[in-house]
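Anyone up for a design puzzle?
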């Protein structure tokens, strides 16, 4: 049995669900509601002391880190290969997965907290917020959550810094996709799976206009959206974080 601890509208969880859908792997889900800071409940921290989703339990063993999880899924299960065999293409795939980890996912974190989770946390009782934050494994996480749970006034400077990083990232993606149909080369791979949730989050943040004038990125997005697995991975109505605050 393949168990996934996840939240529906979390970047790294969409990434793992997209991989599972592409491979056709059945899974059982356990919802960890980030809008209620459930990643900081003691029973979840016992499974993943970092207090992050996703987390997998397979054959009784746990595994964290979405990119590692996706490689594991690709290797463990039948279904279409999601990693090129040719060494150079395989290396390219890894470079673009790393780009997602180092650039894309960090760039959405600020706006997600400032514009989306801030709104969600506004409905949480202060005592519950403090109870959860007290369990935070790092001071950085505690500070981020406390900042985002204090009122409905976002830190737009943080959003602007992120916006610049996103524009720079989309320029790099455009250059790569001018040369290559998919991020890893000729074939769809784990790199495309890793980067696809970035598109979804930008759409949720109402930043979709950022790829106007980027035909190669626009074409790649259309090809990703042609895949049923992408739609299977996305949250369904009612599973989304509320629409962002004005910005
Ligand atoms: N490098 C980790 C990052 C995991 C991560 O940051 N997960 C987010 C959701 S996409 C999370 O759990 N956020 C809750 C928090 O930071 O407290 C991975 O790829 O799995």
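Challenge accepted. My sequence:
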């Amino acid at each position: 049995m393949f168990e996934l601890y996840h939240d529906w509208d979390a970047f790294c969880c969409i990434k793992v669900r997209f991989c599972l859908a592409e491979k056709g792997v059945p899974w059982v889900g356990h919802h960890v509601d980030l809008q209620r800071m459930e990643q900081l409940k003691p029973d979840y921290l016992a499974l993943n002391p970092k207090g992050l989703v996703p987390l997998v339990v397979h054959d009784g063993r746990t595994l964290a880190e979405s990119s590692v999880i996706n490689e594991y899924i690709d290797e463990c299960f039948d279904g279409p290969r999601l990693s090129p065999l040719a060494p150079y293409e395989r290396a390219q795939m890894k470079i673009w997965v790393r780009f997602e980890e180092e650039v894309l996912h960090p760039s959405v974190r600020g706006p997600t907290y400032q514009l989306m989770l801030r709104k969600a946390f506004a409905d949480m009782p202060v005592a519950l917020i403090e109870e959860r934050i007290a369990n935070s494994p790092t001071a950085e996480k505690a500070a981020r959550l406390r900042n985002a749970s204090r009122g409905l006034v976002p830190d737009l400077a943080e959003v602007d810094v992120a916006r610049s990083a996103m524009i720079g990232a989309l320029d790099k993606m455009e250059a790569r996709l001018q040369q290559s149909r998919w991020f890893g080369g000729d074939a769809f791979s784990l790199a495309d799976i890793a980067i696809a949730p970035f598109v979804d989050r930008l759409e949720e943040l109402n930043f979709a206009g950022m790829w106007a004038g980027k035909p190669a990125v626009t074409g790649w997005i259309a090809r990703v959206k042609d895949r049923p697995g992408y739609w299977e991975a996305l949250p369904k109505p009612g599973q989304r974080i509320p629409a962002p605050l004005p910005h």
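A detail worth pointing out: The mean pLDDT is 97.
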